[in-house]
């Protein structure tokens, strides 16, 4: 049963104080956040492994992160529906 009452002011705001987006935006927000987090961590590990803590590490890492994010976000938008279907085909529902 859906909640019939409008959300309170606290429920309608994010932790940062911004108004929450409608539920329809979840299909964009989830891959956005996932791609930012994953590319941030993976590019840091990859850059650190490649050049170590060399001078200019931060610039090189953030450049690598930006490029990888530009590729990862649209890839996730395309791939997530396929991955959801594949997961549903492999996992039993309760």
TrEMBL record:
Q: Which InterPro entries match?
A: DUF2798
Q: Which residues cross the membrane?
A: 21-46, 58-83
The protein's UniProt keywords, in alphabetical order, are:
Membrane, Plasmid, Transmembrane, Transmembrane helix
Q: Spell out the Pfam families in the cross-references.
A: DUF2798
The source's superkingdom equals Bacteria
- Name the UniProt record assigns to this protein: DUF2798 domain-containing protein
Q: Which organism is it from?
A: Acidovorax carolinensis
């Amino acid at each position: 049963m859906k909640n019939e009452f409008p959300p309170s002011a606290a429920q309608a705001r994010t932790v940062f104080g911004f108004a929450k987006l409608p539920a329809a935006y979840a299909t964009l927000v989830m891959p956005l956040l996932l791609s930012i987090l994953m590319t941030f961590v993976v590019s840091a590990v990859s850059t650190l492994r490649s050049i170590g803590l060399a001078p200019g590490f931060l610039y090189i890492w953030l450049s690598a992160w930006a490029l990888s994010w530009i590729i990862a976000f649209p890839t996730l938008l395309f791939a997530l529906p396929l991955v959801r279907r594949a997961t549903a085909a492999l996992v039993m529902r309760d």
